[in-house]
Amino acid sequence: MSMIKIKDEYIKLGQAMKLAGMVSSGIEAKVVIKDGEVTVNGEVEFQRGKKLYNGDVVSYHGETITIEQC
Known about the structure:
Helix 1 (13-20) crosses helix 2 (26-34). 24% of the residues lie in helices and 36% in strands. The longest helix has 9 residues, at 26-34. By secondary structure, it is an alpha+beta fold. The strands form 2 sheets. It has a 5-stranded mixed beta sheet, with helices on one face. A two-stranded antiparallel ribbon has the order 2-5. It is built from 2 helices and 7 strands.
């Protein structure tokens, strides 16, 4: 499991996935999220703009990231 460190209060799901290297583009993030392939805190998430906060956990294709606020 890797961590994404954020300076702001939150980061959007699509942005976090790109930053972590889970997807190569915003379009790819949009498609995999829309198809129900991504979970946030164990629940399937369909909103690319979902706000992620400190401690949130994102999983996609066996890869997991945790959001950590600096």
